[in-house]
Design goal:
seven-stranded mixed β-sheet, TIM Barrel, alpha/beta, single chain, 14 strands, 510 residues
């Protein structure tokens, strides 16, 4: 790892470069103007293939919200939001209603309208986004037009018609089907079953997909330190590409009485220093590489600042003391400039690069792939002398293979060959289909049957391969799992109007 002084100096350079790129973009947009004719909002509910279960969910359908910025000049900028439109976007649309003559290409709209704003910028400049970003950041190569993917897999309950279950027995065949569809990397989400049972499952998946396919695994922090220490050596012969979130991170508020706020941690809301120390200790006991949401490398956001504002600081205190992971897996929520800055630092620290999956449909998947192509891809190869670390790039995760349909013209974006192809048209190149928007429009009538089926699953959460121990560690009585707490990075139950006060365990890149 480079010295901390080198890292600090490099970040000063990265900040300077970000400002220089912003200046270049302002110059390119000077004199160009797009004004709003109409802002269209579309909230949709789309069935999953089977039932979405990571984090002990039971969601047969999920929601997304789209915005179309229809301009008087002709271009339409389209953006996708996971689950629902956020408050900054809502505020920006209200601003545009109050100021109908405002130039949509103005910089203050980049953060709240993100994908839709960049879509308009690309169209105004006549460039596909991956090429535009590659030119702005002067990456020195033509960005790839196809981005390889890792097919996410998990245990699935069948849908309401009894179809598309993935069980402990059928999971290897499901993984093989992803390979047969063209994927060269399979990701295995491991939360539902007994931790030790995943040894047998991964052995059978490896046998099914063969030796040439990469397998990456994700416990979502559901293993404790001792479980991880005992299980990981048993995976040594399976050539696991890496493990994500191998152990849990404690949330201090669980140890304090209700209503009592724990003392502020140094730079975060959980026991960061203890967690990174244990993660580093575990990493030194196995050859399986690690990635972690909180180490991308770690950053600290200023109070009240938007994540995309790029005003965050690297957590130098933690970086100076710990070296717990091998792979940087950030989310695109840092925006174009923040993501470029973080990825450059990760590369400087010799971390491998993988863009984390989001809760997304085809538009966001394509947008993320464009960011990957321009900002995360590194074409260098090492010669016989010291130089840039070779082969840092890893296929990016996708959950899009688990979604039944889409609202884009032409339907679901093709994942043929296990890749996503970037559009040659200016912007992100994708458009919404009015017929599909109507077919999947979010209404109470459409939500109701999914909610009823979901509640049946929650009330009788029976796994096909039940655990032998409770989450507390004691022998589990026979019968349903009866999970008392479901925790996941998104509060998903309210998608279907199920108000359970779900606990949210993770905030990425904070």
């Amino acid at each position: 790892m480079p010295s901390i002084a080198d890292l600090r100096d490099f970040d000063i350079f990265l900040r300077f470069q970000c400002e220089a790129v912003r200046g270049k973009l302002r110059d390119l947009l000077a004199g160009k103007r797009l004004t709003l004719a109409e802002a269209r909002r579309h909230k949709v509910l789309i069935p999953m293939v089977g039932v979405y279960t990571p984090g002990w969910q039971a969601l047969p359908a999920c929601s997304w919200e789209f915005v179309e910025l229809v301009t008087k000049e002709g271009p339409i900028g389209t953006g996708e939001w996971s689950i629902r439109l956020d408050q900054p976007a809502i505020d920006a649309l209200r601003l545009l209603e109050a100021e109908p003559g405002k130039n949509l290409l103005e910089e203050d709209l980049e953060i709240p309208l993100f994908m839709a704003w960049w879509d308009l910028v690309g169209q105004a400049l006549g460039k596909p986004l991956h090429r535009l970003w590659a030119e702005l950041f002067d990456v020195g190569f033509d960005p790839p037009t196809k981005v390889p993917l890792a097919a996410y897999t998990w245990q699935r309950f069948p849908d309401a018609d009894g179809n598309d279950a993935v069980t402990f027995e059928t999971w290897p065949a499901f993984a093989k089907a992803q390979v047969d569809a063209g994927f060269h990397t399979v990701k295995v989400s491991m939360t539902g079953y007994e931790p030790y049972d995943y040894i047998d499952l991964l052995e059978r998946i490896r046998a099914a997909v063969g030796p040439s396919i990469d397998i990456r695994i994700d416990t979502h922090g559901t293993w404790n330190f001792i479980e991880a220490r005992r299980i990981l050596p048993k995976l040594a012969g399976l050539d696991i590409s890496y493990i994500e979130q191998p152990i849990n991170a404690m949330l201090p508020e669980r140890f304090y009485p209700r209503g009592v706020t724990p003392p502020p941690a140094r730079g975060g809301s959980f026991q960061r220093e203890y967690y990174f120390r244990k993660l580093e200790e575990l990493r030194h006991q196995t050859a399986v590489p690690f990635s972690c949401h909180w180490w991308t490398p770690p950053i600290v956001q200023p109070p009240g600042g938007n994540r995309m504002s790029n005003r965050w600081e690297f957590d130098w205190y933690m970086i100076e003391r710990f070296d717990p992971v091998d792979i940087s897996a950030p989310d695109i929520g840092l925006g174009v400039f923040g993501l470029w800055r973080l990825l450059q630092m990760a590369r400087f620290m010799s971390l491998h690069i993988m863009l984390h999956s989001n809760f997304e449909l085809g538009l966001q998947s394509t947008f993320r792939a464009a960011m990957n192509s321009a900002l995360a891809y590194y074409p260098e190869s090492a010669g016989i002398y010291l130089g840039s670390t070779p082969r840092l790039c890893l296929p990016m995760d996708t959950e899009y293979n688990q979604v039944r349909d889409d609202v884009l013209l032409g339907g679901k974006v093709s994942l043929g060959g296990g890749e996503i192809a970037l559009q040659p048209e200016p912007g992100h190149g994708l458009h919404l289909d009015p017929g599909r928007l109507e077919r999947y429009r979010y209404t109470e009538a459409r939500v109701r049957p999914h909610r009823e089926y979901s509640m049946k699953l929650y009330d009788n959460y029976v796994l096909d391969h039940p655990r032998r121990r409770t989450m507390a560690g004691w022998p589990k009585p026979s019968g349903p799992e009866r999970v008392a707490r479901r925790a996941f990075p998104y509060d998903l139950t309210n998608i279907l109007g199920i108000d359970e006060g779900q606990e949210v365990d993770v905030e990425l890149n904070t």
